[in-house]
């Protein structure tokens, strides 16, 4: 087949070289060789630098992955000085020059995570080993993020996570080479708690349905703590199998349990189905319990899920990392740039991926080198603004971004087909900031043997 | 001296009494034919002997040892081999392999993990298989696919599979069913030839020509029970047999 | 007590879906001897018949939202509403039940095309090859759907009059038992379809031949009956049954392109637990597994055996298959080798 | 009248083995031009080759279709990672431990499942594997670390390493007496094990045990009357193939120390079935080829994107470039599964018997051309081919 001729030659050469190196030099001899002359994984040598975008292209999150990919492509364009520049002009303090990264033109490769740890790691490895990617980004689930993050730590390649919301990503599974721009379950709880108390009162009894895996558990724990801090009681927490589809057997006991709020710690297809079934079939939103209106809360909201849930999402409270309708210059610039390019507004997944690409490129410019330990240093405790979320800190202690968190509500009367959620409140960054030590974990070393060995 | 002794075997299928107090004794080295009209219980009896069916009552003793409750492979290992009415072979294996399989069973027992040693290195097994193939005129077909053989050849192959085990008792279920007269005669010749090996045989057969050519003794079954037993000559002239089996017609 | 009744109801609508899929699957197994891994995809296609139908009904006039300048944002008003006002509105509202008008012919066509174009060449092939080709077909079908409709679940609503829940307890003198209307409709619907299939097989000569074929394929072939054409029809019926099950399930479960794969494994378990080649077994197993799954999800049960709701279906399958060698009502010799 | 080949002796075995070993060990060179010349994918080729070879012993030789073999792959992975965590970072120990765990696990599941045959057997294995997967994902999280997957961590005890004063740094990957097992050396390690696994499977195939399995597949009813007890043979085959899966799982964990529950899902079990059928059921080499083909499609076809297509076709004039890109785009990138599905269908339609059947046909055709039609009679394939 002729499709591969162009790039296969390059792969052949690099492979042969690597094969030679692998056979000729057992790694014991080169183990400590690189730190002096900075031999590191995939140091770009030619006129281009390659970034690896690892997103779900098959499976339930394929649409989210497609949106992430759009954002990445746009970011690459802007970094190379093409298009309108998007958020590059608003980003401060910026070292970006619009001529690629360190003068090298940015190229990219893509891969399919399939939202499976193994597939995501295999895809990331291909990008590093075959395509010589210097950085990996993207993804749409915490399991995959944690898996790829630890791989990147081993290979000495920086990983800028995509959409991942579990506390573990920058908590107990944090890594020196992994950075998260997206917010997490803890922040969702802290931001949402007071708003819930304000809207629904302090005397409430909550019933949790939780996706039975690590993200669901951290979400449930965070929401439980945050609501109980507001005086709510937790009636029951029930775990549901991932991908259960039909949640009727978990929904039927809710109304007779004495609870007057249902908290759905679900994401993706689980959330779409459980929310729709609760609202349209079990009629929960129109019920009265304990003399109060029964309410449903979805702590993590996204545009695609709101679209999938349709009318059921109306009036539902939740949190989001970012929204394209926010009133700030950077958001407007990005929404315009993305909208003009693709004819649709960016999702929050797209936004975080775009921001991560810029942040990485900027850190390289700041460090003046692609050498990862230096880039990591530049990213750690980097304080910036102008990427749509207001003033933001990339905390060095856990590589988590701290910025305002949005409390959103499913829009009752959408003005157009993209107008699915409205921002109820912007919870300031200080409120959602927490002590890095509460989730434990260990970042690990900045200098690793990596794939260069 | 009797090799196989059947005492008072009963078998019911629902309301149907398939075997009714069957008593039989097969002498060592004899060729014993069991005849009878359709539904007389011949095949059911045979199935009891090889462990396919468990009788409700009665005893089946082979060389002083009860065969009842034994798994088919244990009965085979005890020295009873069977040729089926419709040939039961391994259609996906070669003719040679078909014959080697039972040879392995009699040499290695019902189960042995022989993961490493090549079949090609088992000269002992190969030699036996080769000998049988020569004897039964299957040598030229040894590398053929057993499934694509003719029905008559398959039956010969199955006979080879039984003989290679040197069984002490060979059960033949209608060995010439569906064969032309010429093929039947060939089979009779073949069975006569192997009779020289001194294997005790029980033959179930419809074809009187076959029975009277081969058998030393004949038992007649009707309605699940043995109604007569004797030499072929005796049976031929037994009025009860003619009544029950041949409907009064003269042979 | 109420909780138990509710869980039985939950089991019934779930079981209805399982039974319908398993029914078609076992029909194909039994008569055609084909292991159809694309059967889940047929369920999915049925669901997307409803999606397409709803999209057709809601072809809309687009009113540009001028406040958004960089891309086209608009509010959609279906032409049906513009032309026919309230009548149009209620037609759109009843999209899912009406979509059956599209599902039946489309699925019949799909089934016939599949059988004529592909499956019939595989009657004599090994089960392994049947699995490979139908699995490949399932992937192709779902990828085609994905390229048209995306990967995100698509919300389809039941008619307003039939959504929400109804107090069915009051009918039998119990209070506080209210259950979603559409789910009850689904259960009744599934009984209706099952009844229709059985009636067809029991009461028509065509059905008699099919049943004879399930009992003994070779003999029926020897009778000189044109089995080929009947196989096509059987496959078409199985496809329609799966499609109907999928179509009517859309308000309960938002369909996405992956729906078929999610149901595939489950439907095989149902068929085998019911017993190969037994239509009645498939139906009984469908409802049985549905109800047991609901019971296993109760917090009281989960407190005793943690995680039981994750594995109940498979656990029941193991227990039944070990206790009853051929499932609930399977026949000897079918798919045992 | 069809004929089959004679029983191969040691000479032919060694020749086959030598050619196979040469082909596997030079994969980095001859697979590079099609974009598969990098360590990870070649490791996967070797590892899934081992998995499929083992699966073929049960399915291809004995004819028992297990739909739950991924459970043993997953069990092997978990066992290996636990061995790294608790005992030693040396791969030898973990691999032995993983094979043992997978062996015991498959003994239990096999013993129960083999009470049934045909599709009932398949569903029993499927049910056990799905239970393992669902539990690993949820309630067994303390052992499996659930969705995230089991990983090494700095705080692991590694008692053997400590006892033997082998110093291991906090986040170090597994090795083989100091030789790293990631990257190229990892591939050669897997490749050598693949060659050994292939040889073992060839010896099994040519042994009395292998012949017995083929006989069971051909006519299990006859086995008892021939004096064999089929059950222990089947159980042994089941355990052997489970141990192969355990080895593959251990290698996955060695080259990439993370064990996730996804490895046990029915899709993973289905994948090895597809690999085996695609390559050729019952053939020795087919499963390896099938495994590589599926992994190749999954990795390489999904990596194409429109930009890359445009770059590839930019030698064409503007409009033609766009047209060709538009034609190819649906089949690559996010459409790679479409290609996979079409390939499954195409192979099974045009090459019944899998890829090895195609190879045999081509070989047969060329031989016919050389020797004339007299050889044609010999070309009618047997259903269980020798190689």
Task: Describe the overall structure.
The complex is a heterotetramer of chains A (453), B (251), C (337) and D (387). Chain A is an alpha/beta fold and 453 residues long. Chain A has helices spanning 5-24, 27-30, 34-37, 62-79, 117-129, 142-155, 185-200, 214-229, 248-251, 268-281, 303-309, 329-342, 348-367, 372-379, 429-432; strands spanning 48-55, 105-112, 135-138, 158-161, 178-179, 205-211, 233-240, 261-265, 288-289, 292-293, 295-300, 317-320, 382-384, 392-394, 401-402, 405-410, 421-427. Chain A folds into 2 domains: 28-183 and 326-403, Response regulator (Rossmann fold, 3-Layer(aba) Sandwich); 186-320 and 422-432, Rossmann fold. Chain A is 39% helix and 18% strand. In chain A, the strands form 4 sheets. In chain A, strands 7-6-8-11-12-16-17 form a 7-stranded mixed β-sheet, with helices on both faces. The two termini of chain A are 34 Å apart. Mean pLDDT of chain A is 88; it is low at 1-36. In chain B, the strands form 2 sheets. In chain B, strands 6-7-8-3-9-10 form a 6-stranded mixed β-sheet, sandwiched between helices. Chain B is built from 9 helices and 10 strands. The two termini of chain D are 21 Å apart. Chain D has helices spanning 10-25, 27-30, 39-61, 70-86, 91-113, 118-137, 141-144, 159-163, 183-206, 208-218, 220-226, 230-255, 266-279, 286-303, 306-312, 318-328, 336-350, 355-371, and strands spanning 150-151, 175-176, 179-180, 258-259. Chain D contains 18 helices and 4 strands. Chain D is mostly helical and 387 residues long. Chain D is globular and about 65 Å long. Chain D has a two-stranded antiparallel sheet. A two-stranded antiparallel ribbon of chain D has the order 2-3.
């Amino acid at each position: 087949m002729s499709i591969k001729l162009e790039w296969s030659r390059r792969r052949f050469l690099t492979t042969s070289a690597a094969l030679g190196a692998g056979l000729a030099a057992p790694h014991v001899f080169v183990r400590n060789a690189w730190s002096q002359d900075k031999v590191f994984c995939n140091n770009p040598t030619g006129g281009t630098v390659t970034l690896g975008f690892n997103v779900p292209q098959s499976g339930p999150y394929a649409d989210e992955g497609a949106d992430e990919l759009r954002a990445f492509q746009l970011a690459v364009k802007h970094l190379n000085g093409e298009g309108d520049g998007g958020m590059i002009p608003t980003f401060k303090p910026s070292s970006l020059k619009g001529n690629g990264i360190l003068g090298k033109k940015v190229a990219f490769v893509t891969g399919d995570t399939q939202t499976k740890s193994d597939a995501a790691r295999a895809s990331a490895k291909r990008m590093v080993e075959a395509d010589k990617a210097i950085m990996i980004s993207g993804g749409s689930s915490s399991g995959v993020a944690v898996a790829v993050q630890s791989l990147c730590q081993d290979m000495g390649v920086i990983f800028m996570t995509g959409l991942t919301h579990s506390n573990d990503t920058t908590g107990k599974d944090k890594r020196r080479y992994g950075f998260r721009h997206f917010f997490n379950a803890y922040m969702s709880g802290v931001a949402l708690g007071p708003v819930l108390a304000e809207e629904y009162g302090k005397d409430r009894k909550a019933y949790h349905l939780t996706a039975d895996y690590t993200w669901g558990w951290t979400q449930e724990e965070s929401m439980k703590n945050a609501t109980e801090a507001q005086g709510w009681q937790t009636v029951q927490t029930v775990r549901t199998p991932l991908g259960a589809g039909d949640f009727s057997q978990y929904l039927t006991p809710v109304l007779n349990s004495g609870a007057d709020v249902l908290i759905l710690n679900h994401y993706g297809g689980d959330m779409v189905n459980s929310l729709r079934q609760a609202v349209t079939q079990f009629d929960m939103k129109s019920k009265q319990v304990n003399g109060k209106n029964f309410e449903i809360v979805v702590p993590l909201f996204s545009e695609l899920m709101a679209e999938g849930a349709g009318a059921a999402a109306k009036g539902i409270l939740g949190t989001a990392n970012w929204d394209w309708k926010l009133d700030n210059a950077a958001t407007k610039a990005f929404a315009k740039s993305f909208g003009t390019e693709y004819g649709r507004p960016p999702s929050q997944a797209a936004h975080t991926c775009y921001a991560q690409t810029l942040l990485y490129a900027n850190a390289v410019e700041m460090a003046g080198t692609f050498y990862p330990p230096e880039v990591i240093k530049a990213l750690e405790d980097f304080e910036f603004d102008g990427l749509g979320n207001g003033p933001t800190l990339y905390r060095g202690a856990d590589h988590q971004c701290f910025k305002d968190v949005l409390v959103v509500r499913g829009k009752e009367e959408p003005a157009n087909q993209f107008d699915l959620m409205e921002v109820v409140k912007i919870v300031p960054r200080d409120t959602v900031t927490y002590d890095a030590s509460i989730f434990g974990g260990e970042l690990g070393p900045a200098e690793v043997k990596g794939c260069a060995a | 001296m009797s090799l196989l002794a059947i005492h008072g075997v009963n078998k019911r299928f629902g309301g149907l009494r398939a075997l009714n107090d069957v008593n039989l004794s097969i002498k060592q080295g004899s060729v014993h034919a069991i005849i009878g009209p359709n539904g007389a219980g011949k095949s059911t009896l045979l199935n009891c002997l090889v462990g396919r069916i468990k009788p409700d009552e009665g005893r089946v003793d082979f060389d002083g040892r009860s065969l009842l409750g034994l798994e088919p492979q244990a009965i085979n290992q005890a020295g009873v081999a069977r040729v089926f009415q419709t040939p039961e072979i391994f259609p996906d294996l070669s003719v040679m392999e078909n014959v080697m399989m039972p040879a392995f069973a009699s040499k290695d027992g019902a189960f042995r993990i022989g993961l490493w040693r090549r079949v090609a290195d088992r000269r002992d097994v190969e030699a036996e298989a080769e000998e049988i193939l020569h004897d039964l005129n299957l040598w030229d077909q040894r590398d053929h696919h057993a499934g694509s053989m003719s029905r008559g050849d398959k039956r010969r192959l199955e006979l080879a599979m039984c003989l290679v085990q040197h069984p002490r008792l060979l059960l033949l279920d209608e060995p010439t069913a569906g064969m032309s007269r010429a093929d039947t005669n060939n089979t009779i010749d073949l069975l006569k030839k192997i009779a020289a090996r001194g294997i005790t045989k029980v033959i179930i057969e419809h074809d009187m020509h076959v029975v009277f050519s081969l058998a030393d003794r004949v038992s007649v079954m009707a309605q699940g029970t043995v109604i007569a037993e004797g030499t072929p000559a005796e049976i031929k002239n037994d009025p009860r047999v003619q009544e029950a089996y041949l409907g009064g017609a003269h042979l | 007590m109420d909780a138990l009744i509710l869980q039985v109801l939950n089991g019934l609508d779930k079981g209805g879906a399982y039974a319908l899929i398993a029914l078609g699957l076992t029909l194909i197994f039994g008569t055609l001897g084909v292991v159809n891994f694309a059967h889940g995809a047929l369920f999915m296609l049925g669901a997307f018949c409803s999606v397409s139908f709803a999209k057709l009904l809601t072809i809309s006039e687009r009113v540009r939202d001028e406040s958004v300048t960089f891309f086209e944002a608009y509010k959609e008003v279906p032409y049906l509403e513009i032309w026919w006002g309230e009548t149009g509105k209620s037609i759109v509202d009843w999209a899912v039940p009406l979509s059956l008008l599209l599902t039946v012919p489309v699925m019949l066509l799909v089934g016939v095309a599949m059988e004529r174009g592909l499956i019939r060449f595989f009657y004599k092939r090994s089960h392994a090859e049947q699995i490979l080709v139908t699995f490949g077909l399932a992937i192709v079908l779902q990828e085609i759907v994905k390229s048209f409709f995306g990967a995100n679940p698509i919300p389809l609503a039941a008619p307003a009059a039939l959504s929400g829940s109804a107090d069915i307890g009051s009918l039998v003198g119990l209070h506080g038992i209210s259950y979603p209307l559409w789910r009850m409709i689904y259960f009744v619907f599934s009984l209706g379809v099952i009844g229709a299939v059985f009636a067809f097989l029991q009461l028509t000569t065509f059905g008699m031949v099919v049943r004879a074929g399930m009992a003994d394929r070779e003999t029926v072939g020897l009778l000189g009956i044109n089995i080929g054409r009947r196989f096509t029809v059987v496959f078409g019926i199985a496809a329609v049954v799966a499609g109907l099950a999928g179509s009517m399930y859309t308000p309960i479960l938002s369909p996405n392109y992956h729906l078929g794969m999610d149901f595939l494994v489950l439907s095989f378990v149902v068929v085998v637990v019911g017993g190969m080649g037994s239509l009645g077994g498939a139906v009984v197993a469908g409802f049985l597994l549905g109800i047991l799954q609901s019971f296993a999800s109760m917090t009281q049960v989960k407190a005793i055996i943690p995680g039981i709701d994750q594995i109940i279906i498979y656990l029941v399958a193991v227990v039944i298959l070990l206790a009853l060698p051929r499932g609930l009502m399977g026949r000897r010799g079918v798919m045992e080798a | 009248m069809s004929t089959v080949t004679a029983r191969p002796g040691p000479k032919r075995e060694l020749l086959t083995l030598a050619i196979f070993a040469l082909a596997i060990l030079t994969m980095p060179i001859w697979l590079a031009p099609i974009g598969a010349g990098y360590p990870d994918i070649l490791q996967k080729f070797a590892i899934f080759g081992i998995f499929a070879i083992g699966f073929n012993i049960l399915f291809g030789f004995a004819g028992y279709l297990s739909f739950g073999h991924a459970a043993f792959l997953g069990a092997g992975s978990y066992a290996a990672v636990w061995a790294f965590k608790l005992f030693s970072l040396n791969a030898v120990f973990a691999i032995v431990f993983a094979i043992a765990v997978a062996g015991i696990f498959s003994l239990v599941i096999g013993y129960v499942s083999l009470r049934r045959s045909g599709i009932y057997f398949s569903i029993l294995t499927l049910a056990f594997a799905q239970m393992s997967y669902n539990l690993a994902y949820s309630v067994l999280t303390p052992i499996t670390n659930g969705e995230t997957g089991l990983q090494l961590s700095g705080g692991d005890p590694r008692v053997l390493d400590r006892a033997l004063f082998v110093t291991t740094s906090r986040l170090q990957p597994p090795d083989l007496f100091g030789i790293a097992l990631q990257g190229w050396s990892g591939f050669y390690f897997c490749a050598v094990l693949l060659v050994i696994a292939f040889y073992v499977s060839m010896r099994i195939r040519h042994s009395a045990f292998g012949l017995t399995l083929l006989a069971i597949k051909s006519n299990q009813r006859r086995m008892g009357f021939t004096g064999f007890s089929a059950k222990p043979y089947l159980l042994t085959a089941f355990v052997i193939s489970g141990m192969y899966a355990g080895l593959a799982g251990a290698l996955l964990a060695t080259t990439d120390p993370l064990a996730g529950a996804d490895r046990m899902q029915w899709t993973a079990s289905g994948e090895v079935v597809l690999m085996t059928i695609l390559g050729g059921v019952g053939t020795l080499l087919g499963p390896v080829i099938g495994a590589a083909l599926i992994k190749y499609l999954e990795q390489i076809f999904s990596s194409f994107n429109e930009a890359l297509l445009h770059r590839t076709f930019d030698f064409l004039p503007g409009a033609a470039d766009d047209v060709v890109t538009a034609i190819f785009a649906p089949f690559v990138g996010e459409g790679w599964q479409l290609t996979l599905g079409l390939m499954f269908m195409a192979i099974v339609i045009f090459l019944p018997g899998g890829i090895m059947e195609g190879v045999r046909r081509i070989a047969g055709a060329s031989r016919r051309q050389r020797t004339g039609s007299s050889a044609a009679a010999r070309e009618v394939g047997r259903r269980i081919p020798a190689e």
